[in-house]
Design brief:
- The chain is α/β, with parallel strands linked by helices.
- It folds into 2 domains: 58 residues; 176 residues, 3-Layer(aba) Sandwich (Rossmann fold).
- It contains 11 helices and 7 strands.
- Helix 1 crosses helix 8.
- The relative contact order is 0.13.
């Protein structure tokens, strides 16, 4: 165990000291709340672009921002033409922050619990869940709730990744080694993160300080990653959850950056291997206009293995 921790620690140290730990925009985002808010706003364009490519219309729709966090992105759906935007999250502190932003007609925020959305049946026409479903402990329950609140013909746009993504554990600041969680045990991974965090060469970021500006000391004390925080679903696990839901669905994986896209794209069509080469995926789930029984001659769902650019 000590040998594997030492190997991983030296790899992490090498990447930190070579300034390869993060992309430039992520490095900037981690420095302050203002930078992080700006970073999240830049993601809004990615979401609206993905919606357009996926045939999900935002203009004129009642949009549920599922897992809205502090609401930084929610107003962007109004800017895209939505008639109303409803942000929900299970984080009470984040919702309180969201409610403090300048009021806008058609924008509201609500605290949710984990098993029931605070909305009436068939009350929204579009749901956007960006970087949310990897955190959902019971995706099947949430998909049923999405079906309940969607009007017939309504669409759910999901953007997320699978557990074999190189940085799936969300240990951005301390563990820049890709696929560390695949090649090392979670115990080794978290023990190494703890050691990195307390090393004199580690540069703290905004998440390393409490509300009083004091450096948090009790970080990375667990020896496994809680599935209530990350469900550890692979892409194929998400597909199975979609298949079991009452929604029609299509999933489109994305390759890694443009320099690698050409040679990695074929791997996105190969079972098992694609888990390591899918940078992200967008899924569109639709509530059918009418209830009907699926037959062998009328399939309702598909895994669209045509990767997006």
């Amino acid at each position: 165990m000590w040998i594997s921790e030492q190997i991983l620690y030296q790899l992490a140290k090498l990447m930190h000291q070579s300034e390869a730990a993060h992309s430039d925009d992520m490095k900037d985002a981690l420095q302050s709340e203002e930078n992080y808010a700006e970073y999240r706003l830049t993601r809004a364009r990615e979401i609206t672009d993905a919606a357009e490519r996926s045939g999900v219309q935002l203009a004129g729709e009642i949009v549920l921002d599922l897992g809205c966090s502090d609401g930084a992105i929610s107003p962007c759906y109004l800017d895209a033409g939505a008639s109303e935007v409803i942000g929900v999250d299970i984080d009470a502190e984040a919702i309180q922050i969201a409610k403090q932003q300048p009021a806008r007609n058609g924008l509201s925020f609500h605290l949710s619990d984990t098993d029931r959305l605070p909305l009436d049946d068939q009350s929204v026409t579009v749901i956007v869940a960006y970087d949310v479903f990897e955190h959902v402990a019971k995706p099947a329950v949430l998909l049923e709730e999405c079906h309940r609140v969607l009007a017939p013909g309504g669409q759910l746009l999901i953007g997320t990744w699978g557990w074999h993504h190189p940085f799936a554990p969300h240990l951005w600041s301390t563990m820049p080694v890709p696929w560390a969680h695949v090649f090392f045990s979670e115990r080794t991974l978290l023990r190494t993160c703890r050691r990195v965090y307390h090393s004199d060469w580690y540069t703290p970021n905004m998440h390393d300080f409490d509300a009083n500006g004091e450096r948090i000391q009790n970080r990375y004390l667990n020896e496994s990653i809680d599935t209530d925080y990350l469900n550890k679903y692979l892409v194929r696990d998400f597909e199975r959850a979609f298949e079991a839901s009452p929604l029609d669905w299509t999933l489109r994986p994305q390759p890694f950056g443009s320099r690698l896209a050409g040679w990695t794209r074929p791997f996105l069509k190969t079972p098992w291997i694609r888990e390591f080469f899918t940078a992200y995926f967008w899924a569109v789930l639709t509530r059918p206009e009418e209830s009907f029984t699926t037959t062998a001659s009328s399939p309702r769902r598909e895994s669209a293995l045509q990767p997006t650019a």
